[in-house]
Amino acid sequence: QVQLVESGGGLVQPGGSLRLSCAVSGSIASIAAMGWYRQAPGKQRELVTTISRGGMTNYADSVKGRSTISRDSAKNTVNLQMSSLKPEDTAVYYCYARRFGGTYWGQGTQVTVSS
User: pLDDT tens-digit profile of 45-65?
Assistant: First the structure.
């Protein structure tokens, strides 16, 4: 089992920055990849970014150049730094972890970009 707890969401003005954090616990060694999805009201959940066990990263075109995913092995966290935020970044952001046998999700954290 893997447990994920997100933090760091909130209200941000357009053009601002935000750092989301995902605390990971459980069978960490078996995780193959982690990342973030988001879901805006009335829209499907979409992949934002991933980081593999080997450290390879991928980003959705909508956030590329504005976002950085990173891991802190000492703290067992996966972090998402976002800048130049836009109203269209408003969504619930979900941390996920994928390993053989399943995908695990956090409870989500709300990010609202508004003036």
Answer: 999 999 999 999 999 999 999
